[in-house]
Structure prediction request, 419 residues.
Amino acid sequence: MRSRFFYFLLTLGFIYRLLLVHLAPQPDIFDQEEYHQFARGILTLNSYDLAVSSYRTFGYPLVLAIIYHFAGIENRWAWIIFQAIMDTATALLVFQIALKIFRKVQPAWAAYIIYLFNPFTSAYVGTRLSEVLTTFAVALIFFLFIKNLQKPNILLMFSLSIALGFLPYIRPGFFFFSVVTFLLTLYLTRSFIGAELSKVLKLLVISISVILFLLPMTYNSLRNLAYFGEFTPLTIHNNIAKDFYLSLIIDNQDTDLLSSETNWVYEEFFNAVGKEERQAMVDKYALLSAEKIRNNPSAFIISRVRHLVTVWHKHNIFPYSDPIFKKYHKIVYWGNNLLLILAVMGFYLWLRKVVSGGKKSEERWFAALVIFLIIYMSIIHLGVMTSGRFTIPAYPILLLFIPISIASFIKRIRLAIKL
Prediction:
């Protein structure tokens, strides 16, 4: 009976996502159109070759291209249904992670339901953006990480290496997160990959893991070398200088209107051809940024501190057109803040038990990875125009801990009633 109800909820979660798509169709503009054109470019080449972009990584366009290949380029509902399935599957990963770290069914069920019907990740199913794929990848990495620590398995290790290697090519901002997490995984492998393995076999496992992790990076670097004559792990356009300068003009993409200067910066930066021109653009905007900071250093410091918090804020449910919730933006804003507060409180309560309750070291390492993710996603966006969509991929991990804080409140209320 419980199993049937589980899959009934899963089906409802899938339908819920399609309903959101129907209620608020998103226009194919900006990043969506660029991903679409990149995917079309991939399809024009043979199966052993992929298109490249000077400022986009290949991860999400590659997935789109595979869908286009089987369902057709103009079949909009094909990629929407695929993303609905993927985000619904993320709820399954949330359930499995909760079972492994809480070791109880009740909080796992609660976390499963909360993620299934949360609007913040579900609303991206109808957008041709990398949020859904990135969110799934982050949840998968955390699932493989804890599962591999609790029950070490060579195939799990290899799967985790592939997932970590591919993540930066879905969302480049995760590059250093992937590198650090992979190095941590290799360190832990010494203890958690079976003691029965000989040193030679253990070295072989680590070597294969490194190769699998480096495969996407190697491919991307070689393609950049072939097309643009530059051997770089991400994109040949150094977006850091451009993004940092724009963050000094536009503080928050969700609340501030993009200016004509913003459009000019994008156009000038990406129209630079050749290594010398691209470097000239980097130097130009680095100098302009330095000048703005010198002119008003206190405003710069205040804005960076504000970025630490505002990147977690949500002012809307849908990224481009929000006809339903726009007039309820305060409810959306404070509703999201409430979820985050409950998540942080739940994590704190769980972490306290992990640290003081003699919990196993796997759970402590998982807690460390959660803390690293939250700090990383706060700091990595200090140099860009903030937007609530940037932190969407962390939501499967954050929402995990809401049931712990709710259970604590219920327990306190019951005790107060008895008194």
In short: The chain has a mean pLDDT of 89.
